[in-house]
């Protein structure tokens, strides 16, 4: 692989939290970023255990999505299994490169599986990692155990033992070294639209303050975001203000009304195809969309979404809509699956034994 062609559009970084020192992850991500655009960063482990609590602040700072895997039985590799299952599921999406960060697990079968699907696979871990995993990857980066000391007043170059090295790419990446504490770069619009947590927080905040004309007071929306979603900040995405961040997401639009800045979700994103466009049904249409967002924001639904990588069983979704008094026939369709397929904010995935649904981002 030529060093000048190292540019992937959608990189998935999957981290085995049980076997990686949290202090190393920034330098690892800096290396990964030289390969292209990071679209997914997930870390797996039992985050209620004391030894993994160090990941909380770092996960927030680096926008790592924590995938909580309870360690019910000591010694069982439930974290490894969850990581592997997620990787296979993600391989059916638009990811073209997978970076597996683990120090002592054998993910060789997973790496081979991903490569047979046309994905590039890079491993990150210790030099003692099993050889079969190293060979199964397109390339393997060796992460030294030594954590570099705090910088002194006099600038000194790190010793080789303090650097992140790899078996064949060291010279390729030498020109792209990043500082140990890099500033948070602006997250690009396409990546913002893939951040489900961010989009759901924005939608819920806008919906909470929605007026009869469909618009929400921007100041009230920001106040709600800051109070109800304190861990989500525009600064985490490289933006100084919420307005700057919202301007990068084409799912929303702002407008001045009576000297007040207002915001709403773009109508083009809120359309049920089969509904006629008279005033009565348009009101009904908006209520359905509001109720759908409310369903996906319920704590019990959030747990199911986390478990299924953002997807919900259609049966559960239908039950939630029924409990709100909806019937698919009132929209001119036979079932809730057909209804979901006609709603622009939803996407449907048909599998041999089950139908899944998710919010479109």
From TrEMBL:
Residue ranges of domain HTH OST-type in the record: 194-267
Gene3D superfamilies listed in its UniProt record: 5'-nuclease (3.40.50.1010), LOTUS domain-like (3.30.420.610)
Pfam families documented for this protein: NYN (PF01936), OST-HTH (PF12872)
Superkingdom of source: Bacteria
GO molecular function list: RNA nuclease activity
Protein name: NYN domain-containing protein
Species of origin: Faucicola osloensis (Moraxella osloensis)
């Amino acid at each position: 692989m030529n060093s000048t062609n190292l540019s992937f559009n959608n990189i998935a970084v999957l981290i085995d939290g049980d076997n990686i020192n949290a202090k190393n992850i920034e330098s690892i991500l800096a290396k990964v970023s030289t390969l292209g655009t990071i679209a997914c960063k997930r870390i797996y482990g039992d985050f209620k255990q004391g030894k993994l609590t160090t990941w909380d602040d770092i996960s927030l700072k680096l926008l790592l999505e924590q995938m909580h895997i309870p360690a019910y039985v000591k010694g069982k590799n439930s974290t490894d299994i969850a990581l592997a299952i997620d990787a296979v599921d993600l391989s059916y999406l638009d990811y073209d490169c997978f970076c597996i960060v683990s120090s002592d697990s054998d993910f060789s079968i997973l790496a081979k599986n991903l490569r047979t699907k046309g994905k590039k696979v890079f491993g990150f871990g210790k030099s003692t990692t099993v050889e079969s995993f190293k060979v199964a990857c397109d390339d393997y980066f060796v992460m030294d155990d030594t954590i570099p000391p705090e910088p002194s007043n006099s600038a000194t170059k790190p010793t080789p033992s303090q650097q992140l090295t790899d078996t064949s790419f060291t010279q390729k990446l030498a020109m792209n070294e990043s500082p140990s504490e890099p500033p948070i770069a602006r997250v690009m619009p396409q990546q913002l639209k893939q951040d489900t947590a961010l989009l759901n927080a924005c939608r819920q905040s806008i919906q909470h303050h929605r007026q009869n004309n469909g618009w929400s007071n921007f100041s009230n929306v920001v106040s709600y975001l800051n109070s109800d979603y304190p861990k989500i900040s525009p600064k985490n995405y490289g933006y100084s203000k919420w307005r700057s961040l919202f301007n990068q997401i084409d799912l929303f639009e702002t407008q001045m009304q009576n000297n007040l800045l207002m915001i709403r979700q773009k109508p083009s994103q809120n359309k049920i195809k089969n509904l006629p466009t008279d005033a009565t049904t348009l009101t009904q249409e908006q209520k359905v969309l509001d109720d759908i967002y409310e369903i996906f924001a319920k704590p019990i639904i959030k747990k199911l979404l986390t478990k299924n990588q953002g997807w919900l069983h259609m049966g559960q979704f239908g039950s939630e809509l029924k409990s709100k008094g909806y019937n698919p026939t009132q929209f001119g369709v036979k079932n809730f699956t057909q209804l979901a397929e006609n709603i622009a904010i939803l996407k449907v995935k048909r599998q041999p034994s089950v139908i899944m649904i998710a919010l479109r981002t």
